[in-house]
Design a protein that fits this description.
It is a single chain. The protein is α/β, with parallel strands linked by helices and 375 residues long. The chain is globular. The strands form two sheets. Strands 2-8-7-6-5-3-4 form a seven-stranded mixed beta sheet, with helices on both faces. Strands 1-11-12-10-9 form a five-stranded mixed beta sheet. 43% of the residues lie in helices and 15% in strands.
Length: 375
Amino acid sequence: MVFGWIDEQAEARRRAGLVRVLRPRPADSPLLDLASNDYLGLSRHPEVTEGAAAAARRWGGGSTGSRLVTGSTELHAELERALAAFCGFEAALVFSSGYAANLAAVTALGPHGSLIVSDAGNHASLIDGCRLARGETQVVSHADPEAVRKALGTRRGAAIVVSDTVFSVDGDRAPLTELAAACREYGAGLVVDDAHGLGVLGDGGRGAPYAAGLAGAGDVVATATLSKSLGSQGGVVLGPARVIEHLVNAARTFIFDTGLAPAAAGAALAALRLLEREPERAARAREVAAELHARLTAAGLEAVRPDAAVVSVRAPSPERAVRWAADCRSAGLAVGCFRPPSVPDGISRLRLTARADLSGAEIERAVRVIGETRP
């Protein structure tokens, strides 16, 4: 039977409680949303949606081609300049997604003969970048600068260390200062994914590298997504101008992919300008996360202390995590549900995302629902 192995894998997923399904949401959902990554509550902000609409009216519905052919507009260039200036880097390059940006950074900066040192807790896009890169990858224990040092000491030559700045499962923060010190001891570059730091950490949301004093350094490259705090879609690589020029010439997910749609670029630029005007949104997202954690732990739940805007609540098993999330949904609350193989430690959990626009009453309601539906 053609593709017969698919049925075997489907049955194995069902037995393990790991079946995933698409759940289209309506335009106006009645659910209280603690599942999305809209940390600053900007995806529906009038200035952001008008930024998208105005860009589509002016530039069209699509970018019409790859960035090197017809897919680069003046709007893309403006967005890149604004992102670089805001985050404190020399230059920036915008991609169609954060996933594509991570693939580009790791594959283009980890060529044949190089060493790539990757944190065991890294996001799937960084892992896939390591798999596609021609360099040799060594996976080291989570958030462990000494393990990074040992790996770098195993060989000489070109090397990069790859890490999330804020890990998406538990919301814990990478020891960026220590990682940078380890890299500098061995002449390695540091490549960090700031998807969950941009808009939340650093002065006015300028990101984790900025907060760690690493933004603009000649040996540091950061990636980020435009789909979380900025409420749009797309990705960006930030770094020294010569690194960005190298990506333009060597990164396959830049060269061969259609450019970011103008509407997404317009929305991201509008969100960035709004954040520059209202930097308190970043602090508010962190405050909401801290309050969620405090209330959940006070209610006797096992929640991980957040370093940014992700709050993780441990569940007894994959099956019970799925049931818990479903019961929350039935009670009017949308939460994330992370379970193997999405979690490297094999521990299932509910994943809550704090939003800067959540009210005190909404926080209280969310904690009450989670507590009342616990397995």
